[in-house]
Design a protein that fits this description.
Blueprint lengths: L25 H8 L9 H9 L2 E3 L9 E3 L1 H6 L6 E4 L4 E4 L12 H15 L12 E4 L6 E4 L3 H4 L3 E12 L2 E9 L13 E4 L6 H13 L3 H7 L1 E11 L11 E12 L13 E8 H9 L5 H13 L11 H7 L13
Parallel strand pairs: 1-4, 7-11
Antiparallel strand pairs: 1-2, 3-4, 5-6, 7-8, 7-9, 8-12, 10-11
Helix pairs in contact: 1-9
Length: 339
């Protein structure tokens, strides 16, 4: 990561030789989060890896909706409401007499199975039970899953993230929170506001709620100033900082928002998600990124912010094209559709 020149009316990235301590480049940050391999890099290795997974399927969808690791399949308490085909490496919930009108009943089967695994203490990741449902996209009818169980099934998860920034006489500054130590990735830096997108909630309504809960931003402020700026997507192997077992699969999409605020607007922690907020220059944010202080997916959100605001360009970042492509990864599963 390369520090900025002193602000002169147009902040830009400026490359300098690496110091003795290794810093993380923008591409390093992408590699850390978008860590699942690409087919074109090594087709044989990719095919061997993917063929080792079980395909998670739900009735009502013509496509696989997630990948499961073999050891997860072996430990999951399936019971008699699942079809687990070890030869084809395929599994799906089974409801007797299931018809298209009852596809959503698969949610109950999934929920009961995860609840039993939780009660049995089968998976550490379920110790962070959230009582919050995520949508499994693909079927015509909504099918849901407990949030903490999503990495066990490798489904695509969705979130909302917002960067609040201030344009001052000294240049752009960004509001940066530090995550509470008790959270996953505890103590790491984060985007100004962010959270998972629960089933049944629209992305913008979610960011309005999260902004109030995490930063004490008023609903009126967010509705009038927040701007939707697209999405980013990536495919990760989870590490232990995320909580629970390492190397679970996490394909993810984030809805991205920006909100310019005045110098008089100061976010304040409202729940137990955030320890504090600090207003940093772009250079300070960039230095923290290069030190690896940001939660991995939040680093990608900031790279996207820098790109959209012209702070990172093809002229100052040699891996610009790859970075832009990688943070908009095409995922191998059905994606959400606008309602």
């Amino acid at each position: 990561m390369f520090p900025l020149n002193k602000y002169n009316g147009s902040q830009v990235f400026h490359r300098i030789p690496q110091k003795t301590k290794m810093k993380k480049s923008p591409l390093d940050l992408v590699n850390e989060c978008d860590s699942f391999p690409y087919h074109d890099d090594d087709p044989d290795a990719y095919n061997k890896l993917v063929s080792s997974y079980y395909e998670f399927v739900v009735l009502g969808s013509r496509r696989t909706v997630g990948y499961m690791l073999p050891w997860v399949v072996d430990k999951m308490p399936w019971g008699n409401k699942w079809i687990v085909d070890h030869n084809k490496k395929r599994l799906f919930p089974y409801v007797e007499g299931l018809s298209p009108a009852k596809f959503s009943e698969q949610s109950q089967v999934i929920g009961e199975t995860l609840q039993k695994a939780r009660e049995n203490g089968t998976f550490k990741v379920l110790e962070k039970w959230r009582n919050e449902l995520y949508t499994i996209h693909g079927p015509d009818q909504q099918i849901t899953m407990e949030r903490s169980g999503s990495p066990l099934f490798g489904i695509v998860t969705y979130g909302v993230h917002m960067t609040a920034y201030v344009n001052t006489q000294d240049g752009m500054k960004i509001w940066v929170p530090r995550r509470a130590k008790a959270k996953t990735h505890g103590g790491m830096l984060d985007n100004t506001v962010g959270g998972g997108l629960p089933a049944g909630e629209e992305p913008f309504e979610c960011i309005v709620r999260e902004a109030a809960e995490e930063a004490s931003f008023s609903e009126e402020l967010v509705r009038s100033r927040a701007r939707h700026c697209g999405t980013i997507s990536y495919f990760s192997f989870r590490d232990q900082r995320a909580g629970g077992e390492a190397n679970l699969l996490q394909p993810e999409v984030q809805y991205v928002y920006d909100m310019e605020v005045g110098e008089d607007v100061v976010p304040k922690p409202c729940d137990e998600e955030v320890e504090d907020f600090r207003l940093w220059t772009v250079g300070e944010v960039q230095d923290a990124l290069s030190e690896g202080l940001f939660k991995p997916n939040c680093a990608l959100l900031l790279l996207d912010f820098f790109i959209r605001h012209g702070l990172m360009t093809p002229q100052n970042e040699p891996n610009y094209v790859e970075i832009v492509s990688r943070i908009h990864r095409k995922l191998p599963f059905p994606l959400a559709k606008a309602r």
